[in-house]
Recover the amino acids of this structure.
């Protein structure tokens, strides 16, 4: 459509809008126009202020410009997780810590314990008596008759529960919307059309990066041209050999993961409590997390996946199995042994988690040093053939997921653990950015960043969040809280606090409905059974609809080919032209709407 | 002609007299002596392509000339403030997929005939690979592209074919995006 047509349509659209407005030209309209203009100016100023305050905006633009959207997704993920932790800190500090500090401003520390520097690493000693851990909170209902009452037990329980529920909702929502936007009709491979027309990253603004991307694209196009007919059916023996190798590597990797978990358990069932020696457990765990994935990447040499994407998925799954099995074994150890052996066991678990978080942070820094800095030095000075390293997005994101799992498990045992996590993520952002810009080059393959993003969010939800939630739920539901410390001392289980509260409410007539909901909805099994049944029915119906639509797509595609191959040229031109004009109108209006949405 | 249509429009008056501060500042910074601070009487100011193409966000983009041509009124790359705002709103994160696909199609359509024919694809390929593929390779890639994406079998890609391909490329929304 020519520019004159476009101008004409724009003029018509805007004239129509102004005609509608110019019908009420009077004093009142003038006033309201001025007022609305003032509001819009104010709104725009606020948006501008919000954007300048937006965290790390300039840095992310710089990273995206040089390294592209794949690497940028790591930093966006980091920022997103930071928001979870900031929210958790605000909620915990506001509802749990502040009341405790108001009513007991000084922690009652036994004589002889003072602040030595080692506490920052071990979390034990001086810290174990402060509000950092579960043990530092009292179980009394605060406040006398004069001031309003504050029930610490209910506050603790509901704060943790509300945070977990909100996190779960946020994760499910972002997983679903990411899946819907980015996983549509996932096709089998990177075709030439996709590479040529859709994969150029317009946000890359650095000249060297642009040149590199052009090189990479050229190499990829050459590769895809030279691929003859793919893996034609290999003879049976070859295929059996491949499957045998796969089976072997998977058994080996799972076995290694379980073996590491078991060794962690047996090494530390006779637990050592001297302060410096307690650092050994987190050290071994972090060492396993650093070294074993390097073994896994060696498997790449013997396995031959048909699709390079399957390779990446296999590595991700193996790493997840390793990390989750170690965490699982640790949780089992805490639930079974520590809970029975120590008084004030929740604080002990909180301290162990604190140590794991700190040690994980130290090891990430080490990993950055070895993975990126040393690789860069080796690749450029010693073994020239290796070249400058690439930033391994998958490995780094999995490290982030592991760190966040630790924070989620620790919510119940150490309410102020999010503070440490916030500091850790803050420093990590700048560390990774510096390491990236100094040591790495942009990735060679235009990867499927969007689909990887969906997978990472899915891994964050399950097993990371679900695992943490089940552990906290098991603790709250079944384990007896410790007798001598914490807000739930003296009760059979943590959940009994709710029971007691419901019994209290039962005596007041005005709250009978709450008690009814509690007894007949939350505590009844029939309700959950019915809800699950209804959800399953809906899933079945939607699946049938999806399958029907896929069939329809195939039929429509065939129809397009049939129609275009059987039409004459005359009517086509006119139809095509009128289609163009009509769609041109649609797009001009869309553009105007987009502009007014974005800029107002 | 063009300006008089807009004189009576309240919407554009508000938009042009108060364009978003940061973008207007970027536009003005390109040529402070040409662009007035006050846009209430819709001055007819057009920045030449050389200034637009020297912006840091665009200067290394292989398609900067086509982008400027597509969004400018006169088709030569000389942009008014309106065109500038259009360009960055389409290339922002919040533009809908269909709008982005439409403009991406126009950018790749070098001869402006509403179809991506073989010569358009060849020119796109040359801009993306620094002219380092041989003629044979260029021809083979273009044939492969048309084979894969041409749904109605007419030997060239129409807007619908292009949009269909975009649907299967979930990254497109984030790659067809310039941060400003």
């Amino acid at each position: 459509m020519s520019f004159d047509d476009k101008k004409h349509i724009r003029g018509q659209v805007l004239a129509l809008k102004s005609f509608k407005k110019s019908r009420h030209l009077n004093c009142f309209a003038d006033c309201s126009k001025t007022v609305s203009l003032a509001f819009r100016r104010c709104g725009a100023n606020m948006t501008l202020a919000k954007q300048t305050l937006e965290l790390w905006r300039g840095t992310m633009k710089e990273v995206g410009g040089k390294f592209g959207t794949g690497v940028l997704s790591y930093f966006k993920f980091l920022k997103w997780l930071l928001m979870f932790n900031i929210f958790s800190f605000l909620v915990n500090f506001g509802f749990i810590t502040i009341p405790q500090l108001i009513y007991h401003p000084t922690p009652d520390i036994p004589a002889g314990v003072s602040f030595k520097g080692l506490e920052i690493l071990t979390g034990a000693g001086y810290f174990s008596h402060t509000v950092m851990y579960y043990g530092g909170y009292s179980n009394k209902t605060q406040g006398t008759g004069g001031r309003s009452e504050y029930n610490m037990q209910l506050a603790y329980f509901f704060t943790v529960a509300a945070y977990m529920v909100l996190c779960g909702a946020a994760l499910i929502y972002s997983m679903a919307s990411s899946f819907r936007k980015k996983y549509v009709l996932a096709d089998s491979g990177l075709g030439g059309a996709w590479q040529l027309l859709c994969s150029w990253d317009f946000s890359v603004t650095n000249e060297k990066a642009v040149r590199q991307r052009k090189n990479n694209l050229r190499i990829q196009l050459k590769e895809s041209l030279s691929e003859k007919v793919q893996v034609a059916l290999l003879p049976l023996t070859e295929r059996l050999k491949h499957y045998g190798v796969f089976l072997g590597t998977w058994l080996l990797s799972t076995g290694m993961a379980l073996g590491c978990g078991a060794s962690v358990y047996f090494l530390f069932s006779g637990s050592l409590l001297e302060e410096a020696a307690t650092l050994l457990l987190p050290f071994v765990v972090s060492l396993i997390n650093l070294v074993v994935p390097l073994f896994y990447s060696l498997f790449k040499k013997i396995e031959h996946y048909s699709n390079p994407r399957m390779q990446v998925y296999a590595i991700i799954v193996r790493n997840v199995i390793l990390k989750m099995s170690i965490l699982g074994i640790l949780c089992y150890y805490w639930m079974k042994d520590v809970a029975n052996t120590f008084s004030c066991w929740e604080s002990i678990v909180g301290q162990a988690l604190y140590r794991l978080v700190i040690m994980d942070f130290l090891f990430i820094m080490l990993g950055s040093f070895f993975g990126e800095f040393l690789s860069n030095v080796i690749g450029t000075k010693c073994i020239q053939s290796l070249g400058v390293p690439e930033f391994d997005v998958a490995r780094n994101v999995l490290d982030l997921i592991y760190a966040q799992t630790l924070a989620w498990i620790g919510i119940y045992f150490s309410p102020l653990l999010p503070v440490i996590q916030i500091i850790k993520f803050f420093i990590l952002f700048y560390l990774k950015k510096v390491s990236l810009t100094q040591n790495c080059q942009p990735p060679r393959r235009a990867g499927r960043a969007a689909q990887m993003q969906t997978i990472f969010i899915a891994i964050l939800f399950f097993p990371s969040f679900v695992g943490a939630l089940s552990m906290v739920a098991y603790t709250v539901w079944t384990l007896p809280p410790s007798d001598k410390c914490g807000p739930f001392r003296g009760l059979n289980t943590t959940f009994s606090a709710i029971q007691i509260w419901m019994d209290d409410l039962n005596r007041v007539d005005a709250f009978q409905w709450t008690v009814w909901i509690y007894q007949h909805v939350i505590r009844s099994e029939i309700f959950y059974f019915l809800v699950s049944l209804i959800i399953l029915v809906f899933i079945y119906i939607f699946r049938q609809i999806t399958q029907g639509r896929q069939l329809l797509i195939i039929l429509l595609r065939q129809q397009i080919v049939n129609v275009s191959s059987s039409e004459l040229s005359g009517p086509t031109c006119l139809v095509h032209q009128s289609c163009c004009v009509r769609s041109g109108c649609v797009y001009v209006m869309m553009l105007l709407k987009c502009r007014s949405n974005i800029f107002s | 002609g063009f300006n008089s249509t807009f004189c009576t429009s309240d919407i554009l008056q508000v938009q042009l007299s108060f364009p978003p501060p940061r973008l207007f500042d970027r536009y003005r910074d390109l040529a402070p002596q040409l662009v007035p601070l006050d846009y209430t009487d819709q001055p007819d100011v057009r920045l030449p392509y050389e200034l637009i193409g020297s912006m840091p966000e665009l200067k290394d983009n292989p398609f900067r000339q086509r982008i400027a041509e597509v969004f400018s009124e006169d088709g030569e790359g000389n942009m008014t403030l309106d065109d500038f705002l259009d360009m960055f709103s389409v290339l922002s994160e919040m533009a809908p997929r269909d709008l982005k696909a439409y403009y991406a199609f126009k950018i790749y359509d070098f001869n402006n005939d509403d179809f991506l024919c073989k010569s358009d694809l060849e020119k796109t390929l040359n801009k993306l690979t620094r002219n380092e593929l041989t003629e044979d390779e260029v021809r083979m890639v273009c044939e492969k592209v048309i084979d894969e994406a041409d749904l109605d079998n007419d030997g060239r890609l129409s807007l619908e074919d292009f949009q269909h391909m975009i649907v299967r490329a979930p990254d497109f929304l984030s790659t067809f995006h310039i941060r400003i």
